[in-house]
Amino acid sequence: MRSQQLKALRLQGFKNYRDSQFEFSPKLNCILGQNGMGKTNLLDAIHLLCLGKSNFVSRDRYLIGFEADFFRLQAQFERGEESEEIVVKAAKGKRKTFERNRLPYERLADHVGRYPLVIIAPDDNKLILEGSELRRRFMDLSLSQESPNYLHQLMQYNKLIKQRNALLKSVDYPAQPDPILLDSYEQQLLGPAQAIVSARKKFIAELQPVFQQVYAQLSKGQEEVSLRYSSSLLEQDFAELLRENRRKDIQFQRSTVGPHKDDLVFGMKGQTLKQFASQGQLKSYLLALKLAQYQALKDSSQKLPILLLDDIFDKLDAQRLGQLLELLMGPAFGQVFISDAHENRLLELLQKLPKAVDFKLFLIENGAIKED
Ligand SMILES: Nc1ncnc2c1ncn2[C@@H]1O[C@H](COP(=O)(O)OP(=O)(O)OP(=O)(O)O)[C@@H](O)[C@H]1O
């Protein structure tokens, strides 16, 4: 298993960080501070550096500090013996640029997966409670880190669906869009759609047993849990589906079938989780899901992913927290970043860890490290 870590980070003009520098521990980093001080922003910078985008905001311009004209993140990563520099920059009104050792990437997709990462955050419960888009994103984010080809196929598919939708919108029903162009888009969609569906199917089939095992550990094996990938393409040929739905699509002016409508069904005791799980069961379910995602990424990349735990301590009782921390400090996990607004709670937990565990504490105040 290859070891890798974020060693140092400088943030300039990034959200509420004007200009701050960090030197991190290779194992555990605790980011402490009151609400609204910038703990999540720091974790988001790490997310952006590893995965090419923010976990929280959809547009890069929202990452630029209110009083800044640009943001710049400069990170030093270590991969075994090697050290490399990743720089991300974005100025107002310009596309962001990504550089590795001063060479710009042509495609961001070439960077994704170099530093695998999993984030566990309070709004993870949206995965269960909200619409299917977030569940597709969960699958896509894992698979894109596993394989650049997956990300490429996904981007290709999304581009074609956008073009097909634009064509469908270009005429007012009952007028008909150009059938030759429609045929051409549909023909081109088949390959990427098939690649996406096969990869998602395989991913969920492999994730399920790991997830069940982790859930059994966390909940003392009380309930039976399951994950099911749902896609109309598993039952029917995509070309046929497109043909069958063409009239409807022309009428509604959008593409109503395809992998962009797939879902992931979370089950517990043979029922759908969303409808009846307790708050405690939801928490354990999500935590198990994310830890299983970690395991899957680790197996596929043969690297220890970076783990970000954003403010999740309120969600777990003291005993579970202790167990979780002990688990994370073992050899099955790599570098971990934890944010928490309750300094004392984290300090108490840290005191119970074995002396040998390497950790660093950072107290954040208004986007800067507070010096004692
Ligand atoms: N583009 C921006 N420029 C400057 N400040 C920003 C920008 N976007 C967000 N902020 C500020 O960042 C702060 C929020 O930071 P963050 O979410 O990291 O807090 P936190 O320490 O994680 O707090 P909590 O404990 O409440 O989760 C807010 O004060 C907000 O005003």
What features would you describe in this structure?
The chain is an alpha/beta fold. The chain has a domain at 1-116 and 303-372: Rossmann fold (3-Layer(aba) Sandwich), CATH 3.40.50. The chain is built from 10 helices and 15 strands. The chain has helices at residues 39-51, 126-129, 132-146, 148-169, 179-218, 238-252, 273-276, 279-301, 318-328, 343-351; strands at residues 4-14, 17-23, 28-32, 70-79, 82-91, 97-100, 103-104, 117-120, 225-230, 263-268, 271-272, 306-310, 336-340, 359-365, 368-369. It has a 6-stranded antiparallel β-sheet, with helices on one face. Strands 8-12-13-3-14-15 form a 6-stranded mixed β-sheet, sandwiched between helices. The chain has a 3-stranded antiparallel β-sheet with strand order 9-10-11. The mean pLDDT is 93. Bound molecules: adenosine-5'-triphosphate. Residues 15-16, 33, 35-41, 62, 64-66, 311, 339, 341 line the site of adenosine-5'-triphosphate.
Outline:
Keywords: ATP-binding, Cytoplasm, DNA damage, DNA repair, DNA replication, DNA-binding, Nucleotide-binding, SOS response. The chain has ten helices and 15 strands.
pLDDT below 50 for ≥5 consecutive residues: which ranges?
Answer: none
Beta-strand content bin: 15-25%
> How much helicity do the residues have?
40-55%
Cα(first) to Cα(last) distance is: 38 Å
Shape: globular
CATH homologous superfamily annotation of the domain at 1-116 and 303-372: P-loop containing nucleotide triphosphate hydrolases
- Each distinct ligand: adenosine-5'-triphosphate
Our Rg estimate from Cα atoms comes to 22 Å
At CATH level 3, the topology of the domain at 1-116 and 303-372 is Rossmann fold
CATH architecture of the domain at 1-116 and 303-372: 3-Layer(aba) Sandwich
Total number of strands = 15
Spatial order of the strands forming the largest sheet: 2-1-4-5-6-7
Average pLDDT: 93
